[in-house]
Each structure stands twice: as C-alpha cells, then as structure tokens.
Amino acid sequence: MLFDDLDPTVTIASVLVPVAVPGAYTYKVPPGKTVVPGTIVKVPLGPREVIGAVWDIEPDAAINPDKLKSITHVYDETPPLDADLRRFVDWVANWTLGAPGMVVRMVLRSEEALEPEAPVPGVRKVEGAAPDRMTPARQRVLHTLEDGFSWTKSGLAHAAGVSASVIDGLIKQSVLEVVLMPASPPLPKPQLDYGKKPLTPAQEAAAGALAQSFDKGATVTLIDGVTGSGKTEVYFEAIAEALRRDKQALILLPEIALTEQFLRRFEQRFGVYPAEWHSEITPKKRARVWRGVASGDVRVVIGARSSLFLPFQNLGLIIVDEEHDGAFKQDDRVSYSARDMAVVRGHISKFPVVLASATPSIESRVNAELGRYGLIELPERASGAELPELRAIDMRLDGPEHGRWLAPGLVHAIKDAFAAGDQSLLFLNRRGYAPLTLCRTCGHRFQCPQCTAWLVEHRFQKRLVCHHCGHVEPVPSTCPSCQSKDTLVACGPGVERVAEEVADLFPQARTLVLSSDIAGGPERLKREMKIVEEGGADIVIGTQLVAKGHNFPKLKLVGVVDADLGLANGDPRAAEKTFQLLAQVTGRAGRVTGGGKGYLQSYSTDHPVIKALLSSDKNAFYQAEIDARRAAGLPPFGRLAAVIISGPDRGFAEGFARALVRAAPEDRAVTLLGPAEAALAMVRGRYRFRLLAMAPRQFDLQSYLRAWLANGPKPSKGLRVQVDIDPQQF
Ligand code: ADP
Ligand code: ZN
Ligand code: ZN
C-alpha cells in the first residue's frame, strides 16, 4: 500500500465485524481519515467487504502493519455509535455469550441508511408570481404551498385534491418552479397535548408517578393493570413527558407487524404517526427510520425487539408493552430477552423503563415485590366496564357429541350473542385443520421428514405442513403406507376445523379465521383485524394472534376451545404461560362496554390455572407459582442456562454432549442436568440435545460457561453449540 511508504506512523484501529468471532479485528486507518470508537466503516473480510464499527478495544500493535488490511471506507456523514450504545452492545454480548460482532450487526441493520439520500424533484411557489386566471383548484394548490415547503408533484396534487394537470399548468405559467428537494422532508413533531383524554384518578396517579421517575435516573416500573385498565393511555403520558424533556422514546410491542390499530391510537393521541421498526418494513423506510433515529429527527419508535439496537441520539424512555410475552425472546444467533435488555439499556443511560401487562411475568412480579421495580396497579377498567364473567365447561360432563368441538353450553352462548348483535371469538391455539392426520386402515401417521413433529393438515390450502420447519406436501388420496384409498382421518381440532363447525351451526353469521398462516400474508391479516375491529364479523375463530394487544370494541363473548392445551407439556413455565394467554384472550370480551363473558372448555376444571382464571383473585395463583419457583431454585430465584448441541448425526451430537459434560469445571454451586433430547428432538434435519446449568442467583454463570466452552471439546463435523441464558422453555 502506497501510503505506508509516505507515512511511517500508520494508525490502526479495532473494528467489530458482523461475524461470530470472539473479539475485534485490527485494520489500518486510511491516511487523512480519522476514526473514533463508534465510527462506522467498511472493511475487507475474506473475499467480501462488510460494514463494521470501530471499537474501544486496544488494537493489536504486534501485528506487522504490512499484514494488515486497510479500512476501505469511513462513513463520516453518519454519527459514530455513542458510548452508551457501545456499552450496551458489549453488555449484551457478555450476558448472552454471543459474539460482539453479531450484536453490533443488529445495530448496523440498514446499509442504505449510511448512504446519503439522493434528492428528488419537487415544486415550489415562485415569489410574487400569480396565475393569469384564478380557479378554485389553483387556489387550493397555492393555499397548500403557503407552508413555504417544497412538495413532490403527486404529494401536492393529493394534498390539494387536484389533478396533476392543474400543477403542470401552474408550472407552465411560471407560478410554480421545479426544484430538487430532500427525498424525506422533515418529520412533523408529536404534539404533546393533542388528543389528550381526561384520565381517571387511578390513571392520573399512575401517570404522575411515571413522570416523577424521570428525575430518579435508572428506574423500572411495572404497570400491572387488568385488560382495559387504560395502561396505554398512562404510558402515553410518560412518552409526553419524555418528549417534553427533549428525549426520544421507544415502545416495544410483541407483534408489531399487525399493530396498525396501535399506530392509529398513537396518532390520535399525538397527532403524528410514530416511526415503525420491525422485519416487515421496506429497506427504504428502514433506512429513513435508522437515519432519523440517529439524527434525533425521529422522536418516537414503535418496534419489535430489534429496535433496542437502533442508534438513538438521545433515548430517554423505553416502554415494554405485554412484557410477559414470549415473543420478546429471540432464539436466533444471539439469544436475548428484549424485556431484560431494555432494563439494561435504561440502566446504562440512566432513564426510566416501564413494563406493562395485565398478566406480568413471574420475574417482573418478583422484582416488584422485592422492591427492585416500582409497582403501579390498575385493578379496574378505565371505562368502568366490569371484567368478563368467566365460566368453565367441564368437557367430561357437558362436552359436545362425537366429532364436534364446541360444547352445547358454548354454542348456546354464541347463539345468544349473535341474536343480540354482539361479536364472539373462539380461541384455539392451533393453526390448520387438524393437529394429526392418520390412516384409518393401518394407523400410518404423517410425520415431518426433517423434524420430530406431526404434519398438520391445512384444508384451505389442501396440504400438510410442518409448523417447525415449513416443510409442505400435498394431502395424498391414498395412504403412502398401505395404499388404501380415502382412508385418511383428521384427529383433533385446529382453527379451520372449528370454523367448519361454526359455518355448519351458524350459516347466517359472518365468520372469519384469524391465523398467522392464512394466505395473503400480513397485509390481509391487517385488513381482517380491521374488519373485526369495526364489527364486520360476527364470529371470529383465532389463534394466539388475537390474544395480543388488539382492541375489538364489539366483542362480548370469548370461548376457549381447549383450555388445557398449553398445560399438557412438561415445561415448568406451562402454568404461567397458559394463565397469561387465557387471561389475555378472555380479557378481550366487553372491554369497553362491559357485559363480557368467557367460557373455558376443559377436561381438568380443577386445575389451579383454570381455578385461578375463574376466581377474580390472580394473586393466589402468582403466589403459588412464585413459591414453587423459589423452592426449585428456578429463575428469578436461581440462574439457569441451556446449552443446545445440534448436528446432522444423532450419535455424534449425543457423544459430543456427553464429552462436554465430562469436561465441565468442578464447581459445587453449579448443577448440570443432561444431556437430554431437546423438547424438539430434531428440527430441519438436525438432532438436538440439551444441557441445563443451574446455579444460585449471585453466581456468575456466564464466566463459568465461558471457561467451560473455551476449555472443553471443540465442535466439529457440522455440530453447533448454542447458549441460551434464561431459556423460555426449561
Ligand atoms: P389497556 O392498555 O390497559 O388494555 P387501554 O389503554 O387500551 O387499556 O384502554 C382500554 C379502553 O379504554 C380503550 O378503548 C381506551 O380508549 C379506553 N380508555 C382508556 N383510558 C380512558 C379514559 N381515561 N377515558 C376514557 N376512555 C379511556
Ligand atoms: Zn394406511
Ligand atoms: Zn419439519
């Protein structure tokens, strides 16, 4: 490289690159360029070039500079990642045992954002010019332009309600001129008092407490409020407070792709739409949000868990809504809980974090009880509407006839609701037509060739689908095992099958199936959610998708088709998860107007979860769960990590897992369990074994795991070792 010869004092820098290596790589800094920790750069990595970030790690000066590659581009137009964000990246990597490069990769999610946006043609009014003849349409155009901004032609035509020819006519007369303008004009600012609702006294007190927390540095507050208690309105006030203090705010939601309704609610409160951030947005929009967040132009982001890694210029508040939701846990390459990492982010930058739920996680309840988190309880609905009246239907005594899934008592209730013009929701957390398909003659069952899972029949789409890997095959007309014709039978219900029964029972009703795999994707789902919201459906049949966040004002009756579904598996979190899901979904009934009813179809009506749902006292249930966790030393009373070993060869993967256990450092504080087959023993053709490490709460489990994995046997032959701190399923 030429400049080495000219400049003997070659400067070098450490760069985190988006690959799974433990540290940073050292590069030469091009002459005339300066980089600081956080500067975003492009560097060669093997045969390709990647985007990375200069990091606060001492570069390796021992490497011969002739061997070093040079940074190929410095993005000096983009602000460097600030110290708090860098500390956060390091913290997440350290906590999850993930590679820092893979964490920084989540920050650098938009390459387009680093390139300046090319200007686009627009029009502007020429000072002092006037048209030869004024028409109402021309008047509207000129009126729209009084704001002094440049507009795109189509944007102006739309805003003024005129055709493009009107604008062309004004350009011809030199009343308007064509200019180059920035592709994304400055964003309108949220208006703090726009659409503010008068709050109930309970909400007022809650909002006041949150406003005060801004002066207390890093705090976490749990809002534990029943469905419809007005938690959203309360945390909107916290957002207003953050904005008043010139801070940016972030709202994390579990199912962001479907939260059209939420965006509209925000708009009603603040007069502008917030920026969205999740996997479904277009690269162009993604780039704009990323840039706007970095420049401080974007004030509020509503996003999925990955928005925690946006380069906020001045973040001052994070809200985690539905904080109990499992969707906040990412089980990808970096396995992290967005709820827990939000708390860390607030701690680093010393701002308040608010967790909200009608059914908080055991972890957050315990933290609130121990005084680590502030607690705000909202036991009543904001509208004054009473909570739904819940009832169990004992399927052993009052179940439906053979081949039917809805008990007479529930059918009767739907009939009444339908007659009264009310909406009903039937909830079943099972996509497709039936969970299992088998041959009546020989008993053959359809299993996924890649996973230890049954194929699920999707009758609308006429195919068998694996819900774990996406494997699809047509439904055959003859049994592949005994060749009998037309002998396949569906066992058990899925939402499609319940929909079939509803269509049969209520042919006059407008029914709708809401399930994440309905053809048409997120756009269609959004439309259908809106139909339900506006009362355009009488009976809705839905999976867990409907349990989250959505407000269906016409909904009066919720029927849970199989309340035992989540309780059957051996996961110690099963009771908590089922309680949360069923409380959420039944809580949708009568949310605004009251008079809601919920029915739980169950074969185990005396199960503590069913009893807790029926009694209005959820505290007893929480207390029992908390006691059980404490007795077993499980989180949050103890530390837990899973190590998953997976590979294409079963015997080899299991052998490696055993060797790893033998190599574990001796430590009396740590209990190792396994290897055992993972809950899903095979996924996508990879066999999976799991080890569990348990330790007391004060124990530094990460250091233990790091030493163990560094000194233990090294995976080879396609084996993969993944660490999952605080696994969701254990
Ligand atoms: P949560 O988030 O606790 O489930 P929401 O904030 O969604 O509750 O409020 C439930 C319903 O009550 C919504 O329709 C909301 O518009 C309404 N609501 C909330 N607070 C008030 C209030 N202070 N006055 C009138 N309506 C309210
Ligand atoms: Zn057969
Ligand atoms: Zn599969």
From TrEMBL:
Residues 212-378 form the Helicase ATP-binding domain. Zn(2+) 2 binds at C448, C451, C466, C469. It holds the Pfam family Zn_ribbon_PriA. SUPFAM superfamilies: P-loop containing nucleoside triphosphate hydrolases. It is an enzyme of class 5 (isomerase). It comes from the Bacteria. Belongs to the helicase family. PriA subfamily. Binds 2 zinc ions per subunit. Gene3D superfamilies: P-loop containing nucleotide triphosphate hydrolases, PriA, 3(prime) DNA-binding domain. This is Replication restart protein PriA. Zn(2+) 1 binds at C439, C442, C479, C482. The gene is priA. GO terms for molecular function: helicase activity.
